[in-house]
Structure formats: structure tokens, C-alpha cells
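Let's do one together. I've listed all components of the complex below, 706 residues spread over two lines.
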Amino acid sequence: MSATVSRSAASQTRQRILDRIRSATRSSKSDVQEALPPTYIRRGKLTVERRLALMVERLREYDAEVIESTPEDLVASIAAQLAGSGRRAFVAPEGLAADWLIPGFDWKVDHGLTTAEIEQAEGVITGAYCGVADSGTIVLHHSPIEGRRVLTLLPDWHLCILRASHVVETLPEYFDRCAQPPGLVTWISGPSATADIEMTRIKGVHGPRFLHVILVRDEL
Amino acid sequence: MSVEAPAHPILDPLLAPPFPQAALPMLRNPQLRKNVGHAIDVIQAKRAKVVAEKTDWQDLRSAASAIRAQALGNLGAYLEQFESKCTAAGGKVHWAADAAEARQIILDLLREERASEVIKIKTMTSAEIQLNPFLEAGGVKVFETDLAEIILQLGDDEPSHIVVPALHVNRSQVREIFARRMGLANLSDDPQALTAAARNYLRRKFLDVPTAIGGANFLIAETGSVVVVESEGNGRMCLTLPRIMITLAGIEKVLPRFQDLEVMLQVLARSATGERMNPYTSLWTGVTPGDGPQRFHVVLLDNGRSSILARKTERQTLKCIRCAACMNACPVYRQTGGHAYGSVYPGPIGAILTPQLMQMHHAQSLPYASSLCGACYEVCPVKINIPEVLLELRSQVVNQERRQIGRFFDPMYLGMKVANFLFQKAWRFHLAQRLGRIGMRLFTKKDGWIHWLPSIGGKWTQTRDLRGLSKQTFHEWWAARGKDAK
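Okay, and this is what the predicted structure of the assembly comes out as:
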């Protein structure tokens, strides 16, 4: 009974707010322009080589570790990164290529790992939806090769495999690649950081403190 | 050297003293002014650099402004679209007409979930509705998770900036607060060590507390998605680990389309922290099975916004995306810091937003807390003409005061009445000039300056000198010169 009463009170509040908004905007319909044709830069102008160089430069400015690899050498590059990390226990999303899970390390593949299991991992390896060179941003849509959000959050070390053919120059070019708006997105620009104390940039507050990127030169 | 901590600042516009009075203790606190000045210099320099890189910056500003204006012009339709999309994706949308309703909705949700603790992403909207004290009184313990918010919560302090809320606190003050409240006697004042202390302090909370509250940078009408822009990863923790997520958002936060983010994300971080992009931006849509909170609520808050929407000049206030570029650029904010504004929204945007949220019944001194230099308008990424709104609000304040009984005997009011009469006819004006010259001679010193005036004139001379009137006006000089030539 009381739930019904409060539900009808809630719907009255909703209607009251919407009525107030409608009466506030009624007289101003003429002010509302349809979206203007954009005059800002939507398409990049750099050559492929310079676009990739910019991506690498921007990532390094965020203190991310970046190496380049040919598609043929990718597995060896991953093995070298894992070995160089000094870590043993890794998690991986379920859609990752099987040969990326280099033997000799402890792998847990996420077929529904618990938070505690992910928290115990020392690192994670994932793919990426795309990279934006202009701001050095890696975009995850959390598909099966990019993993659930928690996977790239709790482990302290993140190795991200980014294909050069997926690197765009400008942010609008990323939006052009999205045929449908995605439901889940994480835009990552460098490892977790804060400047809350005297504006000094400190790496690694809560997210991964180490971001490693392998740029796979598959663009040719 | 130990610095006297300022008394707990009052950020409730109903209780805060007028701006000039609230600003005095800040102006007399050299440590605070040094902390604020340093932080602002750093942000300003970074912002200038990354904005200069963008050859299309003015085009981006125009586009961002147009997108926000379009969202506001059709706000009702976009909110309904957001609601239906979010609901279809498994979220639940609540509507709150004012702060009290929003607080009650959130507490009821927490009680339904039997939550005794809650973790929070930084949200200025929750500070606006004074959510934390209400939840604590209702038996829910609140843990802020943004580093700056932890500093304030543990230091029993209030935010002085909307992006870097603890910018008035320096590292040794942070060390003192953390050492005392976290029981870390040997903590150093190295920002790295202080940040690590915060990480350890919160890690278990993130893993254990099942309920989180956050704000929204943007709501996307087209998809029902919510966007949170952050740096530290505490936002991602709160958006990913808990079972229940509650988002509190002002009704103005909506963007029409997903693609509008291609503009907003280019201007927001550059304006806010002087970065090309902030470390983490999260977008989610309702509930995603197997990923993140499985119960999701959005509380849409009006709290005075719909009446701002109704006013032609003032509506642009609601275009604000809370980047804080205006306060970083403001010469007044730089001197006083944020607490003087008596509101969680300080600086130029606070000077126009707070009095309007208070329906012009409180905070009427704020529209005067500006030199009208226009620096805020110049840096605003959504082109809010803050000086224009300040002037509009000042005229409303004057009209309010004019209606007050007893106002007739106020020297300022009388002076304006007299001036109005004198300026109507040239001969009255010339006569007044001549009389004024005689009267002012009494106060004009040998150097040609007036250093002191009695009564209402003292409001001018207590902060600056006044040039004495010259012996001859231009008119008189011109007329005399003509005669000489003949």
C-alpha cells in the first residue's frame, strides 16, 4: 500500500519536473539550432608513419612503455615483455588468442573469475578496440579480447596489444569507426594518475601503475 | 612554522557570510594564498600549452557550445529519451525536485539494500545537496575515494575548487592529516608516499563495500549511457566492483548523441587539468550482465535548474561542464580561493550559479565578486558569457534592494537618485560639476589625489585613491581655446 502511494508520488514529481522544463523551453524552440555542420578537424592529415610515431610519443609522455613488433614476432614480443616484467601470475580475457598465453607463467583465463582471483594476479594482457594518436588514448570496448572492466583495473601491470591498423589520428575518427554506439567503453590515457597534491603528477593511485603497449605493425 | 588552519569554512549559501566578509580571512592567510596561487599557475601553464596545440580550438568551443545549447533547448525530450534507454538497459531512473528529495531517494535505496557503508566517486552535485552528513545521520558511513576528497574528509575541511578540491592544502598539511587520521606516524610528505598511503587506505574498501555513489559528467540521451571522467581510477573501482551503483546527476548533464563526446572529450580535460586526455573515462549503459554492478540507479536532480532554464540570459549557466577553467583564470578567485564563495561552486561559475540555485534569495553578494574582466568567458570551453550573466544578476539584485522598505534612506540609493536627476539636463550636470569641484577641494591633497572620503565615498577610498577633479573640464577648455583663437 505505502509502496503504491510513494510510487505515485514519484511519478508526480517526474511529471512536475518535466512540465517545468517544457514550460521553460517552450518559447525558445526557435533558438534551438539543429546540429551545425562541424568546422573542427574531424579527419587527420598525417601519413601512416607519422600517425603511429605520434601515438608512440604520446603514450611515452604518459610514462607508458611502448615497443613495436611485426605480426610474425608478436608472440615472441609478448614473451619478452612478460619475462621482463618479473611477474608470474597473469589473468587474460577469454577471447585472447591461445598462443598469447605464453607457457611458463601462471595463467588464469577469465571464464568468470572472482574479484579475489583477479586481485591476486600480478598482471593482465588484453587486446584493444582502437588507439587515438592525438591524445595517446587506448580505447577498450570490453569485447572478449579486451575483457571485463575489472580485468584491466585490479592487476598492477597491464600489457595491451594494439594493432597499428586500429590506430586513428583524431578522436572524431574513432567515433566514425563506431557503427553502433557501444554500451561499455573505457578510454585509457596513460596509467592511473593524480595531481591532487600540489599539482605534482603521481603515477598509480588506484588503477594499474604500469601500462605496457605492443604496437603490432600490421598496417601494410 | 605552523599555519593556523582556517576555521571550518561554511559552504552552505543559506548560512555563509557575504563574499567580502568571507574573503577576509582568506586574504589574511598567506599560506592559503600561496597554495592556491601555485596550483593555479601550474594548471594555467599546462592548459595554455595543450590548448595552443589545437589549431581548431575556437571551432571546438563553438561546437561544444552549440551541442550544450541544443541539449538544453530540448531538455525535456532528451531526458525522457535518456530515461527510456537507460531503463531498457536495466537501469532505474528516479526524479528529485530538490535536494531533500534527492537525499531521501538515495537513503531509501541504501536502506533497501541494507547498506551500512558506501564508497563515493567525487561528485560536486552530492556536495550541493549536502548528501554526506545526511547519510551519516541516517546510519550510513561514507567513504570518499578521490584523493582530494579523502584529504578534505579526513581533514574535516571543505572543497575550494570543483576539479582539484583540495588545492588550498599543501603537502605538509596533507602529511599531517594522513599521519593523524590513518595512524601513520612516520609518513613522509613526499606526494608519492602520500598517494601510496591513500591507495592502501582504500584498497580493502573498494573490494569489500558493495554499494557506490557517483556523479555524471555526461548522460547520453541517444543510448541511455552515463559518462564519468576521472584521473585516479577510483571512479573505475566504484563503477566496477560494487553490486549496486547510484548515480546522482543534475538534469542539465544530458548530451543528445554518443558522437557529441568527440567534441566534449576534446575540450574537457584540456580545460580542466591541462591534459590532452584525462587518464580514465568510463561509459556504461544500464546493467551489463557479468560486468560491474548488477543494480543501477540514476537520480535526476532539478533543485532550481528548471527555473534557470526558463530565463533567457541565464540559461547559458546550465551549459557548464564543470571544467573549472573559469576559476583558474579568475583574478578574484586567485586571491580569495574557493571558500570565500560560500558554496561548493566557487569562482566565476559559482558567482552566477549559486545565487540562481538559491532562487536569488541568498548569495546576492556573489554577482559582485568579479572585476568583469572577461577572462572566464575567454577560457570557457562551452562559451558561457559569464560577465553578461553577472550583469543581469546584479540588475536583479538592485531591483530587489530597491523594493525593500527603508531603502530610500540608503546613501547609495539616494546618491543614485540624485545622479539620475542631475544627468537629465546638461545645465544641471555642469552646475553639479562646478559645485563638486568646490566640495572636493576640501579633500584633494597637494598631489592632486583624494586619499580619504567620508561616509559612502569611503567605500572607494578605503581600497584606492581617487583622482581629484581637474580645475577645468574639457568642455570649458575647448570653449576658452575657441575664444583665444579669435
